[in-house]
Amino acid sequence: MDRFHFPPWVNTFTLMVLGGVAAGGAYVGGMFLYGTWPSVMNAGYAPEQPVPFSHKLHAGDLKMDCRYCHNTVETSAHAAVPGTNVCANCHRGPGADGTNITTAVHTASLKLLPIREAITTGEPMKWERVHDLGDYVYFNHSVHVKRGVSCVECHGRIDQMERVEQVKPLSMSWCLECHRNPAPRLRPVEEVTNLGWEPPDGADTDRQAYGEKLQDENDWAKQAPTSCSTCHR
Fold this sequence. Notes:
Layout: H1 9-35, H2 38-41, H3 55-61, H4 66-69, H5 84-91, H6 113-121, H7 141-145, H8 151-155, H9 172-180, H10 207-217
Helix pairs in contact: 5-6
């Protein structure tokens, strides 16, 4: 009896399967490396920006509301990186006649030169992203801030930072910890951008109890979803 021989196309098919397995492994490995890269989830990441914008000065000392620059945070999934025109409201340089707008400040600062050039050319500023979730994660800013979760819960005391850094891990387990028990992280919606807010009775108030009280009194503060489809759509 003649021995059975696989047809020649089996060799090609085998190589294709092995190539697919290798490509799949490389893809999974690449996604893992990207998802765990310091610029994505590691606390302490603080890249240097093209312009040394100080949140401590603007949001802290000058008490500027976060929503002045991040003006879509209440209506959109994205908080919006402010356009150069927002910076221009305060830092536009001299006009065509050489005079400054009376409300403009630091119009000759060398540190703000990239801003003035961007205003002139219309090119956007290339800010370095600090908080960067993987593309496989869906996060909606408006859903959180309209339910009493303050900016400080994810970004820390931005109003005290000269250079913004990532202070939370932004990992799945960290997000789930909050979703499973959001009460101690809740506050009245009108206090969301007040990063130094404390409960009415002072700093010694039990945040857990205060959050549970908000949950009892408001539909917007009910339990957060924990199903996979909430973030992975």
